[in-house]
Design goal:
5-stranded parallel β-sheet; alpha/beta; 163 residues; 5 strands
């Protein structure tokens, strides 16, 4: 069984994330969505809220694709998380060239830590490339319409946070 790990903070999960999940599900037999506990980023949503959002979206995708998709919170090194879940591949989404520089460095470090785990980059569809969780939160905080960027459930969660 080929296991893939798609890690991120998912604060909140967006249509861009869902697009990458859908396409990643075509490449593996089991997809683990690694929900990072990253205290440095000071997420808007708690770990439990982010995991619940990911599980809801993953459940719909699993039914659609027939692939097992699960959420897995983690706080350790990404490469250790990949080992923990039995992943042979780490799947990363790229939106723009700016993402590549950081991701390139991460691949090099991860390969130095464990060269048996590959990293595969997936480009988001053009209509999702500009979506960033940070910008979605800003739009929601300022009362803007985020329906083009997130599911109705995530939109409701943002509205509840910002009033």
């Amino acid at each position: 069984m080929r296991v893939g790990l798609y890690p991120g903070t998912f604060d909140p999960v967006t249509f861009g994330h869902i697009d990458i999940m859908r396409r990643a599900a075509l490449l593996v037999d089991r997809l683990v969505i690694g929900v990072a506990i990253n205290r440095d980023k000071r997420p808007l949503f708690s770990l439990e809220e982010r995991v619940a959002m990911v599980e809801a979206e993953a459940g719909r995708l699993a039914a659609e694709t027939g692939i097992e998709i699960v959420a897995h919170p983690f706080e350790n090194l990404l490469i250790d998380c990949a080992r923990d879940v039995g992943a042979a591949v780490i799947l990363r989404g790229l939106r723009a060239v700016a993402d590549f520089e950081y991701e390139f460095q991460m691949v090099g470090m991860n390969r130095a830590l464990d060269d048996r785990i590959e990293t595969v980059f997936l480009m988001a569809e053009a209509r999702h490339q500009a979506i960033a969780s940070k910008l979605v939160k800003e739009i929601a905080r300022l009362g803007g319409d985020v329906s083009k960027f997130v599911s109705p459930a995530v939109r409701a969660a943002l509205k509840a946070k910002f009033g």
